[in-house]
Amino acid sequence: MSSREGDMALAMAGLVLAGFLVTRLDNIPDRSFGDPLGAVLMPKIWIALLALCSAVIGVRAFLAGGALVNGAGSKEDVSHPKSVAGVVIAVIVYVLAMNYIGYYLATFLLATTILTIGRRSAWIFNLIVAAAITAAFYAVFGWGLGVDFPEPSILGY
Amino acid sequence: MSVIDGLALGFAEALTIHNLLLILMGSFLGTWIGMLPGLGPAAGIAVLLPFTYGMPPAAALMLLSGIYFGAQYGGSISSILINTPGDASAVMTALDGYPLAKKGRAGAALLISALSSLFGGTVGLIALTFLAVPISKLAITFGPAEYFALMVFALVATSSLVSSNVAKGMLSLAAGLLFACVGTDLQSGLPRFTFGLDDLLDGIHLTDVIVGLFALSEAFFNVERMMTGAAHRPIKTGKLWATRAEYLRARWAAVRGAIIGFFVGVLPGAGGSVATIMSYTTEVKLSKHPEEFGKGAVEGIAGPEAANNACVPGAMIPLLSLGIPGSGTTAILLGALLLYGLQPGPQLFVDHPDVAWGLIASLYISNIMLVILNVPLIGIFVRMLDFRPEILAAIIVLVALTGAYAVTNSLFDVELAIAFGVLGYLMRKVGIPAAPMIMGVVLGGMLEQSLRQALSLSGGSWLVFVNRPIAATILLLSLLSLMWPLVRNLIGAGRSKPGQRRTDVIAK
């Protein structure tokens, strides 16, 4: 996706979000005697700011025609979205699975997954490192800091 | 309490075995975090923040500020040895640090960098020590109108200065302010933007935003780098010594850098990267041999390094004295103070002098520890540059998720952190800065409360912001800072580029 397309998509997303949030304002109380500002004015102002900025970005992208400089933060010239998507999916599955298989097993599997995404050929090394990371997490967070992690609930435990 | 009494209290608080170990750990971790490309102090503090909840607030702040300070030292190591700055404030050091290292003078570059950092940090800390309390006393006279104006200034200045695209900075800010609205309204007791979810009635936890936006999104970028990047082999450091001539050339650059860095650090929105650029361009302009810059000029190392370390105490002044953060990192520290139940601002020095002065004293100790760590122990840090990126990515993701869970023992917070992580990743892809968003989340609630209080006191009249001169002046400055990028672009369009040489140097 080019810079221009990214900015156009960003502008559309901002405007849609602003429109959606406007529909959620009905339940928020307005001004009262003891509260001259009310609870709805500031959200309205922030939504308006969001919409305005989105519109400015969209108009600039539309008029630019060619590639745009995105500004700070876009200087990352590496792109491998599939690997990131893989990690995000793994993380989501990790959270969902934690209640069933417990924190430590889920952590071991997530660590193995991320290491394997990085180096598929070294799977034995990845398993050993993942086990070491899990053990370190138990030592530091489970035993050291006493964090109460989810226990496995599968098979009735 | 006088400055001397305050410092004595602070050192008494800091010079315990437990706190010294925490300062050492923070300094070590901060150096390592600052050294790793892409991982800055904000990400480091974000990852560790949840685990500091059980600690006494003073101790927790000593750890976190040690990371902040250490990261400034660490960024220069990777700049000099592998031409890959650890974070934005270390970019200028790479321009002359790496060329000097390639000439076989890596040891000299590292030594001058460490000593300039020590000098800059010391100057900044002395200024912080003597200015923090007077500024906080001035702030006691501030009412809700003045605080509202200050917060508007901080938010607008950060959003307009942190990015070359003001619209994107303001977009990020607007999103952060909207996130701050989520939850139960304090005045009416009714929910706002909770979408029927009971978990959102308390609002979005600051930890989830910080961990997601800074730590998780950074981990996702590390995953991309590990898939596409080649490992850099660091240059051998050699002996850590510099010639007398190099010391003499570096000394005034360090002095100028320290002064520039401190005053830039005080300003909201202008952080270490701005300070180092200003310092570097100053040295180029003042040098009798400007052609040497970009090829290993020691002034090009000493000035920026002194600047980025003086910037840290400078940024602490608005945070501690006014309760207003000036950057994404200090916004996270402000969030930490709030999470510990402390109200930053003028009352911090009155109600919790042990915390305020303990923090300042810990920075003095950290400053010295960092030179000890960075000079004789440089070999250990160089070996750590060879850390496998996939292991680092796995550790950061797991620590971040564990931290998000540990706050409330709720998987909902972990889910929110993941959502913010994905959001932070996408934001960076399209060039939206994260600092304004985090500042919006941290300050949004306080901003609204200040405004409501100001209007309640004035009977609903908005003229309160005009009739009170301090508030009016600050709001005018906010407007000017919003217009400044536009004015700067118009001025630049009508001139030949004065920074052409710097641009050429940077392009090498």
The biggest beta sheet of chain A is recorded as: none
DSSP summary: helix tally of chain A: 5
The parts of chain B where pLDDT drops under 50 for at least 5 residues are 496-508
Helix proportion of residues of chain B, in percent? over 70%
What's the quaternary structure here? Answer: heterodimer
Number of strands of chain B: 2
- Name the strands of the widest sheet of chain B in spatial order: 1-2
Question: Overview of this structure, please?
Answer:
The complex is a heterodimer of chains A (157) and B (508). Chain A has 157 residues and is mainly alpha-helical. Chain A is 66% helix and 0% strand. Chain A is built from five helices and no strands. Chain A has helices at 3-23, 41-64, 81-101, 103-118, 123-144. Chain A is flat. The N and C termini of chain A lie far apart (48 Å). Mean pLDDT of chain A is 82; it is low at 68-76. Chain B is mostly helical. Chain B contains 21 helices and two strands. Chain B has helices at 3-14, 17-35, 41-48, 57-82, 91-140, 144-161, 166-181, 206-228, 244-266, 272-286, 299-322, 328-339, 346-351, 353-374, 378-384, 389-408, 411-429, 435-457, 464-467, 469-493, 500-507, and strands spanning 183-184, 191-192. A two-stranded antiparallel ribbon of chain B has the order 1-2. In chain B, a hairpin with a 6-residue loop joins strand 1 and strand 2 (191-192). In chain B, helix 6 packs antiparallel against helix 18 (435-457) and helix 8 crosses helix 17. The longest helix of chain B has 50 residues, at 91-140. Mean pLDDT of chain B is 83; it is low at 496-508. At the A-B interface, helix 1, helix 2, helix 3, helix 4 and helix 5 of A face helix 7, strand 2, helix 8, helix 16 and helix 17 of B.
What are its keywords?
heterodimer; A: 157 residues; mainly alpha; 5 helices; 66% helix; flat; B: 508 residues; two-stranded antiparallel sheet; 1% strand; globular; disordered C terminus
